Amino acid sequence: MQTKAGQLWIDRAIIAVMAALGIVMLLPFAWLFSMSFRSVADAYKMPPSFLPPSLDFSNYRAVLNSSVPFAQIYMNSVEIAVIVTIGQLVTCTLAAFAFARLKFLGRESLFFIMLIGLMFPAQVTIIPIYLGFAHVGLLNRPIGLALMYLTSSFGVFLVRQFMLSQPKALEEAALMDGAGYFKIFVRISLPQLRPALSALGIITFTQTWNYYFQARVLLEPQDSMTLPIAMDLLRGYLGSGNLAIVMAAMSMAVLPVILLFLLAQKLVIEGVAMSGIKT
After folding, report:
1. Which alpha helices (DSSP H) does the chain contain, by range?
2. Which residues 6+ apart lie within 8 Å of 26 measured at CB?
3. How far is CA 164 from CA 38, 100, 114, 168, 225, in A?
4. Which of 63, 146, 207, 229 is the most exposed, having the fewest neighbouring CB atoms within 10 Å of its CB?
């Protein structure tokens, strides 16, 4: 039988290993921010030093003053990520409630067909999407890219799995008291979905923030592009751009995602963990 002292040492060892792994995972981000404060000469200095000689903010000013409209591109990414995140939180939650709580003909078959959509990469459907956008005049408009992802099969699946793990007693009692399904959803189901919605929101925002292929095909003018494409433009042909300036742009691009995750990491982990309790 394991003693209490032995279990304590095992816990300490696990914490030490996790802390070491956490530091290793944070090192690339620390190096990214360190490089963003260096001059061009320091960026290519060998052997490299981990800490910058001084905090040089000129690279950040250079990003904003470059030929690439970085501020406009940044706002495009914010607009697309916010609209898609809000849209998926609404549509995926309503669809998940229908699949988890309502009984209708063909429910399981329809859910299976929806999940099949997860098997197809974006490259398979981009041609009909491009032709459709050209027909309705949504090419080269950030709002068009946002409208394309207002719902998600993965989001419906995640919220549905979480909802299946929740007890039905309160909902059934409300139904017997004459409450409608929409009232049950708003008053009872929705308050319990905070962890799942936090997880879905973070995942959706991060994924949308990093859209590259779709934006490269559908958004051509620089003032309609998104941040991943701006990184390409700043990097230059065959990587001939200023490395320190590119690192400064990447630091500005990754900062919102890091802050968002730090603010909601507990709910994200809880939502992802609880969504797999019951299938």
Report:
1. 4-36, 40-43, 58-64, 70-101, 107-116, 122-136, 142-147, 153-164, 169-176, 181-184, 190-192, 194-209, 213-218, 227-235, 243-274
2. none
3. 51, 6, 18, 9, 40
4. 207
Residue found by looking up tokens 């099969």 in the block: 153
85-102 residue pLDDT tens = 999 999 999 999 989 888
SS3 string of 60-83? HHHHHCCCCCHHHHHHHHHHHHHH
Bond preceding residue 47 cis, omega within 30 of 0: yes
Q: How far from 33 is each of 36, 77, 246, CA to CA, in Å?
A: 5, 21, 11
Residue 2 clears pLDDT 70, i.e. is over it: no
Please name the residue that has the structure tokens 């995140």.
85
Q: Which amino acid is at 242?
A: N
**Per-residue pLDDT band at 279 (split at 50, 70, 90):** very low
